[in-house]
Specification:
Elements: E1 14-18, E2 26-32, E3 35-44, E4 58-65, H1 77-80, H2 85-99, H3 104-107, E5 111-120, H4 125-146, E6 159-167, E7 170-173, H5 177-180, E8 185-192, E9 197-204, H6 211-236
Parallel strand pairs: 4-5
Antiparallel strand pairs: 1-2, 2-3, 3-5, 6-7, 6-8, 8-9
Helix pairs in contact: 2-4, 4-6
């Protein structure tokens, strides 16, 4: 029995609320159970220096956790003078995931920055962030299209992410913190709406996992991401 009493292949309750920020060109408040993340997409009429004159745009991301997003207060990273290695790794993952489904030529020489701020964490913050970030990015591009800044085709596909793991010997989908902290194997999958794989992160926390177990995790992730993509479609329709 999972601590959450969910079936092995059952997602947490997921919601995607568009328009969560008054000022951002695109925004989404995403909830995976008790994990809540605010994603905002901001448009700038500039690109990094190394892209100037290329005719291509850029999509990047920043990620952070509020001090009381977890059970005990953590120091704001700005106070320490630099983001942690974990923060840098996650924001690079979010940026890579979004760029994989963007036609940067069609975007033109503009930059979209998606900020993902974790309000409350209960496992799976990076997967929730990626799933909500796509909705914020989609709304930002729709905002641009409404102003004749871009045409159709900038956003080529959906992208969503979910965690899977081996918990008490069984493969399970969408781990919350209680499950993640005890899992024998922990993995994160990022996929497109057409089931293309963008990134897989998998680690044996206790005992190595088998090829069959990995295949079971891939199957769970594909089914879970299929459900998340359908929720994205409903959110932006």
């Amino acid at each position: 029995m999972r601590p959450s009493h969910r079936a092995p292949d059952e997602l947490r309750s997921v919601s995607l609320e568009r328009g969560a920020s008054k000022y951002a060109e695109g925004s989404c408040a995403v909830r995976f159970g008790s994990t809540h993340v605010l994603c905002t997409a901001s448009l700038e009429e500039r690109v990094p220096g190394w892209l100037r004159g290329s005719g291509e745009g850029w999509v990047t991301a920043e990620y952070g956790m509020l001090p009381r997003a977890t059970g005990t207060r953590t120091q704001r990273e700005v106070s320490s003078g630099r983001p942690s290695g974990r923060t840098q790794e996650i924001q690079r993952l979010i940026g890579r995931s979004l760029r994989a489904v963007v036609d940067r030529k069609a975007l033109g020489e503009r930059q979209i920055t998606v900020d993902c701020d974790v309000i409350q964490a209960d496992g799976g913050t990076r997967t929730a962030a990626i799933t909500g970030a796509w909705v914020a990015l989609s709304d930002c591009i729709a905002w641009m299209k409404a102003r004749n800044m871009v045409r159709d085709g900038v956003l080529r596909d959906h992208v969503a992410a979910v965690s899977c793991g081996i918990f008490r010997g069984a493969p399970i989908l969408d781990l919350d913190y209680a499950e993640d902290s005890e899992a024998e194997t922990d993995a994160n999958f990022v996929m497109t709406g057409t089931r293309g794989i963008i990134e897989v992160q998998g680690t044996a926390e206790r005992t190595p996992f088998s090829r069959d177990e990995f295949t079971a995790l891939v199957d769970l992730a594909e089914a879970g991401i299929g459900q998340l993509v359908e929720l994205q479609k409903l959110a932006v329709s």
